[in-house]
Amino acid sequence: MGFITNLINGISLGSVYxxxxxxYTMVYGIAKMLNFAHGDVIMVGxxxxxxxxxxxxxxxxxxxxxxxxxxxCLGIVVERxxxxxxxxxxxxxxxxxxxxxxxxxxNSALLIWGADPKAFRSVVDLPSIKLFGGQLTVSPISxxxxxxxxxxxxxxxxxxxRTKMGKAMRACSEDKGAAQLMGINVNTTISMVFAIGSxxxxxxxxxxxxxxxxxxxxxxxxxxxxxxxxxxxxxIGSIPGAAxxxxxxxxxxxxxxxYIGTQLADxxxxxxxxxxxxxxxxxxxxxxxxEKV
Amino acid sequence: MxxxxxxxxxxxxxxxxxTPQAEQAPQTQQEEPAHKGRQRTKMVAPPNNYLVPERDxxxxxxxxxxxxxxxxxxxxxxxxLNLMVGKxxxxxxxxxxxxxxxxxxxxxxxxxxxxxxxxxxxxxxxxGMDTARVSREGIARTFQNIRLFDSLTVxxxxxxGLHNRxxxxxxxxxxxxxRYWLSEKEFHDRALELLDVFNMADNANDIAGSLPYGxxxxxxxxxxxxxxxKLLLLDEPAAGMNPVETEELMxxxxxxxxxxxxxxxxxxxxxxxxxxxCEGIVVLNFGKVIAKGTPEExxxxxxVVEAYLGKQD
Amino acid sequence: xxxxxxLSRASKDNLITYAMVIVAFVVMQALASMHAISSSMIxxxxxxxxxxxxxxxxxxxxxxxxELSLGHAGFMSVGAFTGLVAAHILAPMxxxxxxxxxxxxxxxxxxxxxxxxxxxxxxxxxxxxxxxIVTLAxxxxxxxxxxxxYVGFDGALHFSMKDTxxxxxxxxxxxxxxxxxxxxxxxxxxxxxxxxxxxxxxxVVTNLVDSRSGRAIMAVRDNRIAAESVGxxxxxxxxxxxxxxxxxxxxxxxxxxxxxxxxVPKKFDxxxxxxxxxxxxxxxxxxxxxxxxxxALLTILPEKLRFIGDFRMLIYAVVLICVMLxxxxxxxxxxxxxxxxxxxxxxxxxxxxDDVKGGGAHA
Lengths: 293, 313, 363
Prior knowledge:
The structure holds three protein chains of three kinds.
Chain A lengths: L1 H30 L6 H18 L4 H24 L7 H23 L4 E2 L9 E3 L4 E3 L1 H23 L1 H11 L1 H6 L4 H26 L2 E2 L5 H14 L4 H21 L2 H18 L14
Antiparallel strand pairs in A: 1-4, 2-3
Helix pairs in contact in A: 1-5, 1-8, 1-9, 1-10, 2-3, 2-4, 2-8, 2-9, 3-8, 5-6, 5-8, 6-8, 9-10, 9-11, 10-11
Chain B lengths: L4 H10 L5 H5 L38 E10 L2 E11 L4 E5 L6 H8 L7 E6 L2 E2 L5 H7 L1 E3 L12 H8 L8 H5 L3 H20 L15 H14 L4 E5 L7 H18 L2 E5 L3 H7 L2 E6 L2 E6 L1 H6 L1 H8 L4
Parallel strand pairs in B: 3-8, 3-9, 6-7, 7-8
Antiparallel strand pairs in B: 1-2, 1-4, 4-5, 9-10
Helix pairs in contact in B: 5-7, 5-8, 7-8
Chain C lengths: L1 H5 L2 H25 L5 H26 L7 H19 L6 H27 L4 H20 L2 E4 L3 E4 L12 E5 L13 H19 L2 H11 L1 H6 L4 H24 L12 H14 L4 H17 L6 H18 L1 H14 L1 H18 L1
Helix pairs in contact in C: 2-7, 3-7, 3-10, 3-11, 3-12, 4-5, 4-6, 4-10, 5-10, 7-10, 8-10, 11-12
C-alpha cells in the first residue's frame, strides 16, 4: 500500500509541477525567455489566497478566484513594465531582469508578510477518503489537484487549437514577424500568455500550499525551478510535454524521497533532467530545430 | 566499385555534356559468342562522364563525388550527384534557386552527413569525418550568408583560419612560454601575407563585423585560404558586389588558383563571373545534375535554358 | 616607450585593468592601516576579492565562450571544501600560512577542474538555454551531494555519505559534517592573498584570451559553424573555457571558505551562481574590467544599504531591473551612444577615414 500511496502523492505533486510548467513552457514558447520570476508568482498566489481566507474570512472558492485575478494582473504588469521594453534585447539581459523581478517579488513579500512561515489550511475542507479498510488514505486535495491539472490541460489544448487567440499564440511562437504581418497583435498576444501563465501559477500556488501547508516568501523558488526542469524534460514549448514532464518529475521526487532519502531527492530529480537531455536534447516531446547553413 | 549497365544508361541519359565513350556504353554485350564454359565478354573502358582540364587529367582529382545524395524527410534534396574537380580546376556549380547547390557544399563539408554515396577528397574517402576534420584534410569554404567572427578583428579572423597550421598549446599560451611568442609572430606574419592577397592588410585591426559587405566577402575568402585548402568552395562570392568589384574578384580567384595551385568550386548566379572564369560547369536542378560541360556547351544546352527560363514553346 | 605604443588595443586594456586592481589594493591597504574604513568593510575585503575572481572566471564562460552557466557556485563549493580538507591535512607539514593557503588553493583548483571536466563533457553536448538549465541542475546536484558528504581525518581520510558515526574515525577531526558543513576552519585567507589570487586569475584569463586557444574559443562563440568550417574542434575549446573557469572558481572558493570560521554547502546554491552571473552581466559580458568593478560595487552595496534594513534587498532588485532596462532599451542606448560620440570625437574621425577608404575600394 505504501507504493500506491507514494504513487498517488507523486501524481498529485506532479500535477502541481505540471500546472506551473505550463506557465513556463507557454512563455518560453512565445517570448523565448526563461521567466525566472514565475516561481514567485506562485508564492504571491498563495499569500493572496491566505489573506482572503484567514484575514478577510472569505469562502475558499472566492479566495481562489481572487488569487487568480490578482496573479493575472501581476503577470500582465510585470510583463509590461519589465519585459516589454526588452523585446529586442539579448536573451541574457531579459534573464537577468527576470531574476531581478524574482528578487523583487520575494523581498516585497518579506516586507509585507514577514519571514516567518504561515500555516496554510487546505482550501478543500473535506475528510480524507479511506480505501481498502483504511489501509489506503487519499487526501481530497490530491484528487482536486489531479482533476484541476486534467481540466487545465484539456482546456488549454482546446484553447490553443480552437480559439482565434490560441491560434494567434501558436503563430507568434512559430514566427513573430510573420504573425505581425498577418495582422496579429504580438504585444497583446504575449501579454495574454503572461496572464494565462500567471493565473495558472496562482492555482498551482493554492494547491501547493494546501498540500504542503507552509507559506514563506521563498516558497515558490524551488518548486519553480523544478517545474521549469519539468518543462525542459517534457520539451519546452510543448503543452503535453509540460504535463508529462511535471507528472514524471513529481513521481520521481516522491519515490526518491521514500526509498533513497530526502536529502538526495533533489539531486536525483536534476540527474533525471540531465539524462533526458543527453538522450533527447530537445526534451521528450520537443521538436529539435537545426540552424540553417 | 561494381557498376551495372542500368546505372550507366541512367547516367548517360541524364548527362548531356558527356564524352563520346559514354554515349556508346549502352551498346555493349549485344553479340554473344558461342563458347564453351566461360562466355566471352567484350571488355570496354568504363564510360566516365567526368570532365577535368587537360593539365589535371593525369593527377588525382582533388574531389570526386560518386552517387552522392541526401534526403530531408521524404525529399531527395540531392540525388545521385557525380562530380569530379581537377587538381587546379576552377569549376562552377550553377542552377536555379532551390536546386540544392548549397546543400552540395554542406555535404562536401559534412555540415550534413550524406544519406548515400561517396566523397573522395584527393583520393581519400571522407566518410565518417566531421566538418572540422574535413577542413583539416583540405576543404575550405565561404558561406552564402556571410559567417565571419563578427566581434573580432580582421587579423584575428585570419589567425583563426590559420589555427591548424601554427601550433601553440593552452599552457604555452597562458604562461607565455617561448613557444607562444614564436607562434604569435608566425600567426601575425602569415595573416598579413594572406590579407595582402586582397590588399586588406590596412584593415587588419578593423572589427570584421563593421566592414563593408564586399570586404566581408573578401575576408571570408582570405580566412578560408588561411586553412591551407586543396579545394576552395565559394558560395556566391560575388553576391552584393558591383560590376567593378566582381571584375576584381574574378581576377583574384584566378590569381589564388595560380599562386596557391588549388582547385576552386564556386556557386554563383552572376553568369559573367561563371562564364568568365569557370573551366568546367555543372548544372543542378531539383537536386540532380542536368548538364555538365564547358561554359560554351552549357550556354548552348537546351535543358539548361529550360531549367532557368521554363519550357519554351 | 615605443614598445608601449605598439601594444594592441586589447593589451592596453589589460594593462589598465591590472593597474586598477593594484591601485585599489594599495589604497585599501593604506586606508585599513590608517583605520579609515569600518570593521564591517574590512570583513568584506576577502569576500570581495573572491567574488572578483569568480566574476572574472565566469566571464570566461559567459562572455568569452558565450555559454550561459548557472552553476558556477557548484565549482566554488567543490574548491571550498577540498581546499579546507587540504589545508587541514597540510597543517602539520607546512608551517607557513601563506604557503599552506596557496597549496590548498592549488588542490582546490585541481578538484574543481576535475568536477568541471565531469560536468562539462555532458554539458557541452547541449547549447543555449538547454545548456544553461543543465549547468543549473549540476550546481544543485553538487550542493545536494555535499549536503550528504561526511569527511573526517585522523591521519587518514574517511568518507561517508550517511553520517559521522559511519566514518569509523579513530580520534581525529570531522572536517565536513553533511549539511552542517565545516566548522573550526583555520582562517588562512588574507586580503593580500585575495589580491594575489585576483592578479593570478586575471593573468590566466587575459593571457588565455589573447592566444591561439582564446581566439578559437571566441571563434566558436561568434559563429560555431564557421569555426568548424576552419577546422576548430568546437567541443574541445568550449570545454577548455569551462574547465579553466571551474578551476579558477575552485581556487576562489577555497579563498572564500578560509575567510570564515565555518561554512555550509547551502551557501553555494543557485542564488550564489546567479549573484556571480549578475556581476558579469552588469559589468558587460566579455568586459573583464567591468565585471571586476561590478563585483566589488555590488558586494559593498547591500552592506552600505544596511541602514535601510529590510528594504536593502528590495532596492538591490530594483537597481538590477533598472540597470538592465536602461542599458538594453534601444532608446536609452541611443542617448548613451550620442554622449559617447561627443567624448570620443577623435576616434570617430579615424573610423570615418577608414570608412572612406573602404568606400573607395567599394566604388
